[in-house]
Specification:
By secondary structure, the chain is an all-alpha fold. Helices cover 78% and strands 0% of the residues. It is built from 9 helices and no strands. Helix 3 packs antiparallel against helix 8, helix 5 runs antiparallel to helix 6 and helix 8 runs antiparallel to helix 9.
Length: 302
């Protein structure tokens, strides 16, 4: 009930993080920076326009497909809608990433195919992870009919709390594990954990079981965040790390847009349980992108 208190606390936390960042030692440039180039700015606008157009177009396709599927019996309608939604999000992720990286890097995209697959892996996982938290209130209201309005806020916050705590618990050991066993094996474990967690929250009959699912999703996300970012820093050229990792933020920014804008109509018409199941499958689909990634570092074995 204290909205301003929450906003002020978050603002103070951000300011503290900013101040801490100012104490990070950084080497000064040894030579004068190159003249400002407008070309990357133009490419940025083109990337944004293309990705937005793909999301808008696929959303309309999914809406039309969902409307068509609703003419079938309930079970068939759910299956068809789930497949249509999953296909729409998957095409948006794959096509959107490939076109945006092509626009940004031009022909050089052929030199680093692993980078493209890495961003696809990142975006597919984050679409699931970010949007489960976004829609959890509506999902709980649908699943447990006694939770309506504000009464759903507390349980939803506790689910998200368990997710957040287990992100913290697993994020640090994930770094050590990915150094020891390699990045990709940890990413496989993270996707499987998150997918099992999503399955648990979909079939859960009580809030206690929901919390278990939240723990698994959080644990998988914590493993993913560290191992995926470590894999990305292995892949990108060291002298152009800023440029490449900047492009990779397409995944962070696009996750909410893909999952919410395409998934929202599915939740509104067919229910949020189906939507949560689609996000769970996206965790598993993120694994397919790993086949296109050539891991250049396996880490110490002892």
């Amino acid at each position: 009930g204290n909205l301003w208190g929450a906003l002020i606390a978050l603002s103070i936390a951000m300011l503290v993080c900013m101040v801490i960042a100012m104490f990070i030692p950084e080497q000064p440039l040894e030579e004068e920076p190159a003249p400002f180039d407008w070309q990357p700015i133009i490419r940025l606008f083109l990337m944004t326009a293309v990705f937005t157009a793909i999301i808008l177009g696929l959303r309309e396709c999914v809406k039309a497909g969902t409307k068509w599927a609703s003419n079938f019996p309930t079970t068939s309608a759910n299956i068809l809608t789930g497949l249509i939604g999953l296909m729409g999000m998957s095409i948006t992720i794959g096509l959107g990433v490939w076109l945006c990286i092509l626009i940004s890097m031009g022909e050089r995209v052929k030199e680093k195919p692993s980078f493209t697959w890495w961003v696809i892996n990142r975006l597919a996982f984050l679409v699931g992870a970010n949007n489960i938290a976004s829609f959890v209130v509506y999902f709980l209201q649908e699943k447990f009919t006694h939770l309506t309005g504000k009464t759903a806020a507390g349980p939803a916050a506790r689910v998200i709390m368990f997710v957040g705590v287990f992100i913290l618990v697993t994020a640090l050991p994930s770094g050590w594990l990915s150094d020891r066993f390699g990045r990709k094996p940890i990413l496989v474990v993270s996707a499987l954990m998150a997918a099992v967690g999503a399955l648990i929250i979909v079939i859960a009959s009580g809030m206690e079981v929901m919390y278990v699912g939240g723990c698994l999703i959080g644990g998988g996300a914590g493993l993913f965040y560290t191992a995926n970012w470590a894999l990305g820093t292995d892949i990108v050229p060291r002298l152009e790390a800023g440029r490449y990792l900047g492009i990779s933020n397409l995944a962070g920014a696009g996750a909410g847009a893909v999952g919410a804008y395409i998934g929202g109509p599915i939740g509104d018409t067919m229910g949020y349980t189906l939507l949560m199941a689609i996000y769970g499958v996206l965790f598993l689909l993120s694994l397919l992108a790993l086949f296109g990634i050539r891991e250049t570092r396996t880490g110490p074995k002892s």
